[in-house]
Amino acid sequence: MSKCYSLIAFLAISMALFGCGKSKQAEQLPVFCKQDGSRLFIKQGNISMEIMPKVAARVSSLKYNGHEILVGIADPDQITDWGTVFWSSPQSEWSWPPVDTLDSKPYTLDSQEDRLVLTSDIDKKTGYQFTKTYMPAGDDRISVTYRITNHSDHEKNVAPLEVTRLPPSGDLFYPRGDTDPISGIFYPLDVQNIDDLTWYHYDAKKIRTDHHKVMQDGKEGWVAYVDKGYLLVKEFTDNPPAAIAPGEREIELFTHVEHIFIEMKQQGASVALAPGEHLEWTVIWHVKKLPEDLAKDPEPAALATYVRSLL
After folding, report:
1. Mean pLDDT along residues 68-78
2. Does residue 133 sit in helix, strand or coil?
3. Which residues, in sequence order, are bridge partners of residue 64?
4. pTM given for the model
5. Does pLDDT of 14 surpass 60?
6. Are 56 and 33 in contact (CB under 8 A)?
7. Cα torsion for 13, 16, 17, 20, to the nearest 10°?
């Protein structure tokens, strides 16, 4: 059984510019979590995750011993440019922009002994309600379980989709699945086939006058990002192409034309939900500082072997 490192739970509520008070809710937070103002912090091993309940309970920061992995908040009003969010798939149901009730509006916190549970309001357009449950999953690992509940008056086919915005640098890779890469309405992303991997190295010079994208089936249930000697791996249940929502693929990489971020996306199986029914889907986040020899020579096969050793 893995050992969990914890912090003493407390809740800080600002009373003045340099002062703070403590509310009764502090005693209800799990021992691995603390709250500072409107933000929640989970500490697990060497990693620290920041969650913003007021902005759809999205992950706004992910650090390994202080080193930031994600694209953080540059402008709080630009909610589509930072952090990790959760969407329903297929995206064609809601088009663009994302549904604010689910993507940017406040979620309600229900703190339990061993987990944080945050729930959205019911979106009037789609009938969906999202729940995000965060909990430790071992050293340098955090589990996020997503729930989609159908509150509409008819059956709906829907899949879960997690979107993580990463700095425009580094490499992304995943075991190549059973479909060829496609790019939708955007320029194709310049990916390589290396052994059994689909591999993408970010090169700003290759980003032309529009966004770039690759969509493809994966294998083994993981996708990874490596940059500056640090590794982020998302682990999830692998699904065959037939289980994925129409027009979608299991894994998607997207680069912003203005070099703001790379998006790493993965999604689960499409499920038919009758009114009142829900689906659940879990993603395990692994964050590591690479061993020194691998950081100096991040050879694809060696990196893939290291990733598989973590799962």
Report:
1. 86
2. strand
3. 47, 67
4. 0.90
5. no
6. no
7. -40
